[in-house]
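explain this:

___
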Amino acid sequence: MGTPGAYQPHLPAVPPWLNKGDNAWQLTASTLVGLQSMPGLVIIYASIVKKKWAVNSAFMALYAFAAVLICWVLLCYRMAFGDKLLPFWGKGAPALGQKFLLRRAKVPESTQYYEDGSVESPAIEPFFPMASLVYFQFTFAAITVILLGGSVLARMNIRAWMAFVPLWLIFSYTVGAFSLWGGGFLFHWGVIDYSGGYVIHLSSGTAGLVAAYWVGPRSKNDRERFPPNNVLLMLAGAGLLWMGWSGFNGGAPYAASIDASMAVINTNICAATSLLVWTSFDVFYFGKPSVVGAVQGMMTGLVCITPGAGVVQAWAAIVMGILSGCIPWYTMMILHKKSIFLQKVDDTLGVFHTHAVAGLLGGLLTGLLAEPDLCRLILPVKDSRGAFYGGKGGAQFLKQIVAALFIMGWNVISTTIILLTIRLFIPLRMSEDELMIGDDAAHGEEAYALWGDGEKYDPTKHGNWNGSLLFMEQPQTSGYTNAATAAPPARGGTIDL
């Protein structure tokens, strides 16, 4: 049997190095991760806040998704994954030309050698073009900024947020990404961050807490009572987030490999375990299960498994799920209320607990539970293993601690400097009048234009609802009639409430 036509070498769109299966999976994984942000987190943010903040919260996520993409291709991708400028930062340059985007992917751009000239940590060359890699990594950058935004919902000045997004991407995210993934000093040192427990979650959780401190709290009324405006819609967004995480962790090997399969099943096992444990603690402590709590437990499980999804065994994923269901629960529900500092900082969605605490927990557990044979499938640094497997495992746990301290420290410093600089030109927090009004003051729009809620149904413009019998020809005596139709009434009057 001859070679299938799609793989004939004369086809210009199919170079010899291209593997269509790997490329198809990478584009699929990218789309799944993109759906986590848009519409996943857009829906969660719009529904988990008070009604008066639904539009503003959704728009903050929507804006960040678009702004990050443009900054990413103009400058930031190559700051995070390009040639080395500093041990923790790459040389910024556009990722727009077809000569760059259509060549075979390579990450990192550099290869690390021992003093004797032998390779210590080789560069990875996936079987797909740079365009697929650039887009995949964009979706990670975008979700990091959007997760950070969850800490400052319902009070951050939208203009300050618009300035903050590109600055934080440039001066904070790219540093962590290059250091751990793009060939920086932590990458070559052998720190394990399989798919972003540190780069994404520890980073966003730490920066979110810092941003919440500098922006200031919500209004007193909002802090005292902040019920979700649509719990069922929140669950729809949470479902997109959970299912999208298969692309989040499954795309990390840059191939449709057995390690991708291992990462996907571990991701779902840990998330399910964590959700059940968190819910059990809610029942035990509060007497009833909370839907919002279950979503938080799902989130901490997904975050915790991320740094080790493809390098731990399935039983270890259950252990990580148990711990991610109880430790962040304790810090959020118990410790937070006892801590004077945490009480002063208004972290709207508890991003510090669900992402920083869970991400740190996952990174440290990876340093203990990373299985040597699984590590050999994916990690460029030789002989990587968790501390429980002997050998150099103890050193691995130490590396995980040092990397966590670097990520947290850099985010505290960079986020502070960025926000204080913006504050010189734009107020970080909305005015008290805007905080009282909400979406209408910030955007001139409201989330729900419900009939009878500030709206008037005009039958002369819209007609009746599919010929409903409710709309019979009758004198217009209701207070909801259209003043412009004071003449003899048209067919299709209004319902008299």
